[in-house]
Amino acid sequence: MYSKVFYNTGETLYCGCNWSARKTDLNSCGLQSFFPKKQRKRALRTEAEHIIPASWMLKVNNKTRQCASDSKAVKDSARKYCQKHDLDYKQAHNDLVNLYPAVGQVNADRSNKPFVDVSKNKVKTYGKCDIEIGSRGIVPPSNKKGDIARVAFYMTKTYGVTYSKRQLELFKKWSKQDPISAQERAHNKRVIQVQGFGLQQ
Fold it and tell me: How far apart are CA 11 and CA 24, in angstroms?
């Protein structure tokens, strides 16, 4: 992802921070003084954000993958176990369509929270960064909502990932509100060149 799709440089997904060689320049996006000391090391790291979280992929067409069930017997993480024993899950987990560089600490804060239009309860904001993360959801920047929705549709079509009715309706709305951009098309073209498949537009 870093080297072949983004050429080891670019802007992070949610906050538009400049990054290179997997290090984030927090000064470039006004976050240089935002994170407390204990979070600063991870904040300076550029990480691969799964737009559709890896945990959501543990179900296919609303049924739990067998590998996820089997992982309990060996007391292993379902995510790690399924990457070793389920080729479809491994491909879904590593699909470049779903991976974008993000500020490490933002990636940690988002975790596997769903997308929402309005964040509630213990809402965390990020200075000049147009993102909010509440205890129950994440509100991404408006200019990324359509991108996120189209990745979500792709993950359903390709791997059978399913969403709640509310989440799906939100994705449909976002896709209409934020039409595909030239930048998004160029990104998808690079993904297809690297892995041989991607979003069809």
Answer: 9
